[in-house]
Amino acid sequence: MNLTRRQTLASLAALAGSGLMPSLTFAQDAGTFRIGALNPITGAGGPYGTGMQKMIAAAAEVVNAAGGAAGRMFEVFAEDTQTQPQAAVLAAKKLIEVNKVQAVLGTWSSGVSLAVLPLASEANIPLFHCSGAPALSVAPANEKKLGYRFQATNDRFGRAFAEIATKEGFKRPATMAFNNASGIGNTEGFEKAWKAKGGEIVASVVYEPAQPSYRAELQKILDAKPDVIVMGSYIADTTIILREWYQTGEENTFIMPAWAGNPELVKALGPDVVEGIISVDSISNEGSPAFAAFDAAYQSAVGHPGLTNVYAAMTWDMVTVLALAMEAAGPGADMAAINAKIREVANPDGKQVSSFAEGKEALKSGPINYEGASSVLDFDEFGDVTPDFAASFIRSGEIKREYVVTL
Amino acid sequence: MDAYLIAIAIVSGIYLLLALGLNLQFGLTGLINFGHVGFFCVGAYTSAILSTNGVPVAWSLLAAALVGMLAAWPLGVISIRLREDYFAIASLGFSEIVRLVATSEGWLTNGVQGIAGIPRIFSGVTGQSQAIAMLAIVTVFCVLAILAMRRIVRSPFGRMIEAIRDNEEAVKSLGKDPAGFKMQVLLLGSMLAGLSGALYAHYIGYISPDQFIPFITFQIWMAIIMGGVGRISGTVAGVIILMVFLEGSRFLRDIAPFIPEVAMASIRLGAIGLALMLFTIYRPQGLMGDYTKR
C-alpha cells in the first residue's frame, strides 16, 4: 500500500467530514429530554465511571418505563471526561452545543467539576456532580446555583471522623493522606474538627500515589505511637499500607472512608489484618427501597454488589431527582422552573418516597421528599448534601454498621 | 455547534504552540525532549498565580513565557550535553519534578487543591464573544509563532541546527559549538510551551498538578510524528489530525449507535493507537514529511 500525500489528505478530510455530518441533522424532539452523562470512563476515575454511566442509563430507563418525567422521555448522551479537565471541557461543550442536553450528570474529580460547572452555568443548565472540593459550593464557580453535589464534601467526612474518634475514646490520632484534593480534604477536615475539640494530632503524613511500598511513611506515623490512624486514602494504597502495618505488629486501629474500607479490602487482606477497622460512609440508605432498586440494577448491569460503587448510587439518584423535579414543575416547564423544584422534591417535610414512580404518584396529592440510594439527599443553600454518616466496624471479616453519626 | 467548534479550535491552537516548540527542538535540532509538559505547567502556574493576585493578564502572559524559558535554563546547563536518549530521560524527570513541586509547595500553588477562578483574558465580555476573543488571541500567537519558525528555518541559525540534527560531529569539526545552539533551541521551545500553558490556564480557568502529566507531552509527540517531523506544515497537520481523532471519534457513536457508551471511550484511545501504528508503517515521515531525503 503506497499512499500519496493527496490520497491521505483526502481520506482524512472525508473522515473528519463524516464525523461531523450526522450532528448537523439532529432534530429537537419536544417529547424527549436530553441528559448528558459525563463520567470518568478512563483515567483516575476509571474504576467508578463505567458503573456511574450505566446507572444513569438504567435510571433513565426506569423513568421512561414509568411514563417519563412530566410526559417527557429521557434520552441519554454519554461522554468520557478522561478524568481530565481539558478533555471534560470539550466533552461538555459537545454535549451542550451539539447534543443539546439540558442537564449534565455525574462529573467526578473536583478538577473536572470546577472546569465544567462554569460551562453548564453559562448554558443555564444544572450540573449534578460527585466532587468534594469546597470551592464548588460558592461563587464564582456556583454563582448561578446550578451545581448540585451528591457527595458529602471532604470536610464533612473529616468532621464525621472526628466525631467517631471522640466517641471511641481515642486520644492520640495520627493522619495519613493520599496526595490529592480528596485525600487531604478528609484528613484536614478531621484535624480541624479534632483541634476544635481540644485534641492534638501526634503525626501526619501525605503520601504520593502509586508507590510499591509505604513503609517509610508508615514508620514515621508509627514512631509517634498513635492509638488510631485516620486515613484519607483509596483502596489500592490502603491495601499496601495495611499489609505493611500488619507486619510491624502494632496494635493501633484505623478510621478510613468506605471507598477504602470496603469488602474488596477484606477480600484482599483477609479478616485478621482488617479486624477492628472503622469504615466511615455517608449513609447509603442500604435497606431503603431506593438502595434495593439501585442495587438490583447495578447487579444486573455491572455484576457487582451496589455497595462497591458509592458514586453509581449517586448517579442513580441524580436521574431520579431530576425526573421528580421535572414532574413537580409540570409539563413544558423550562430549566429555571425545574431547578427551583430540585430542593422541593428532595428535602424534608414531604411524603417520603424512594422511586420515581412512587414520587410521581405522591406528587399528585402533595409535596414529596425523595430519600435516595446514596443518602437521604437533602440539599442546603449551596446545593450540598449533609448526609448522616455510619461507623461500620470490621469484625471477623464482616463489615457491620454499629452506629450513626449526625453532624 | 459553533461554541463546540470554537472550543476545539482554541484547544488546537494551544496544542499547536506546544507542538511548534517541540518541532523546533526535535524536528529541527534533534533534541529529544520528553519533558515538554513541564514548561507548559510552569507557564500555566506563573500566569495563574500572577493574575489571581491582581497582575493584568497581558503582563502575566509575558511573565509566563519568560519564566517558562528561564525554567529550561537549569535543565539545559545540567543536561544539554547528554547524548540524545539520555537527555530524553533527564527531561522526563524534569517535568515530573515540576509536577511534584506544584503538588507539594502549597503556599505557592495551593497544592493538590489547584488554583480556581483564574481570570479570563477579556474579562469584559462573556459567552460566545468571550470565546471568539480567546480564539483570536490564540490564533494571533500561533500565526506569530509560525512566522517566527519560518524565519528561523531560513536563517543561518536554522541551517546550523539542522546540521546539528543531521551530523553533530561534522558541526563540531567546523569549530562550532552544538551545545550553545541546543541551549538556545531549548529556551525558545520552552518559551512557547510557557505561553501555551498560560493560555490554557486562562481558558480552562482551573489548574491542578494532575493536569500536567507526561501524557500531554506524548500527545504532542503523536501530533508531530503523524504530521511530519521537521516540517512546520507537518506540525499544523499533526495537531489537526490529533484533534480530529480525539474529538471526531466522539461522533462515531452517533453514526454507529450499536457501540455502547462505555466501550466508546476505549475505542477512541484504540483508534489513536492504531493510527499511530499505521503512520509509522506506511508514512514513517508523517503526513507532510520530507520525502526528498532518506
UniProtKB/TrEMBL annotation, chain A:
Asked if Chaperone is a keyword of the record, the answer is no
Keywords in alphabetical order: Amino-acid transport, Signal, Transport
What residue range is the signal peptide?
Answer: 1-27
What CDD domains does this protein map onto? PBP1_ABC_ligand_binding-like
Is Transport there in the keyword field? yes
Recorded hits in InterPro entries, A to Z, give:
BCAA_transport, Leu-bd, Peripla_BP_I, TAT_signal
- Domain (Leucine-binding protein): give its ranges: 33-346
Give the matching Pfam families.
Answer: Peripla_BP_6
Q: Which PANTHER family match?
A: LEUCINE-SPECIFIC-BINDING PROTEIN, PERIPLASMIC BINDING PROTEIN OF ABC TRANSPORTER FOR NATURAL AMINO ACIDS
To which protein family does this belong? Belongs to the leucine-binding protein family.
What is this protein's name?
ABC transporter substrate-binding protein
Q: Origin organism of this chain?
A: Mycoplana rhizolycopersici
UniProtKB/TrEMBL annotation, chain B:
UniProt feature coiled coil, ranges: none
Q: Where in the cell is it found?
A: Cell membrane
Listed transmembrane segments: 6-24, 31-51, 57-78, 85-102, 131-149, 185-206, 218-246, 258-282
InterPro entries in the record: ABC_transp_permease, LivM-like
Tell me the keywords, alphabetical order: Cell membrane, Membrane, Transmembrane, Transmembrane helix
Q: How does it sit in the membrane?
A: Multi-pass membrane protein
| ATP-binding is among the record's keywords | no
Pfam families (UniProt xref): BPD_transp_2
Name of the protein? Branched-chain amino acid ABC transporter permease
Q: Which organism is it from?
A: Mycoplana rhizolycopersici
